[in-house]
Amino acid sequence: MLQPMTAKELEYIADSMSNEDLLMKQCTAVVSISTTPAIKNCCSQMIQMHQQHYDSLMHAIEHHQQMAPTQPQ
């Protein structure tokens, strides 16, 4: 049976989400200033990949909230 995540694990996931968000913003900036179609395409694909990572991490947090005790222990 799965156990609720520890505070350290939740902190790691939050940091990872922050990193994924930063990577999406950096790729978006490159797409907006690049004039090279191959670079725009590559960065657009990277944005989608980082969005998927972010969504997976968010799902893990949501799943944790469903498992976490409702009362402090």
Describe this structure as you would to a colleague.
It is a single chain. By secondary structure, the chain is mostly helical. It has a domain at 38-63. It is built from two helices and no strands. The chain has helices spanning 7-33, 37-67. Helix 1 (7-33) packs antiparallel against helix 2. The chain is elongated, with a radius of gyration of 17 Å.
List the helices and strands and how they pair.
Blueprint: H1 7-33, H2 37-67
Shape: elongated
Largest sheet: none
- Which sequence of SSEs, written as H and E, runs from N to C? HH
Content of β-strand: under 5%
Query: What is the number of beta strands?
Result: 0
Q: End-to-end distance, in Å?
A: 19 Å
Structural class: mainly alpha
The low-pLDDT segments are none
Give helix % range.
Answer: over 70%
- Average pLDDT, all residues: 90
Radius of gyration: 17 Å
User: Helical element count?
Assistant: 2
Task: Quickly list its features.
mainly alpha; 73 residues
In short:
The chain has a domain at 38-63. The protein is 79% helix and 0% strand. The protein has two helices and no strands.
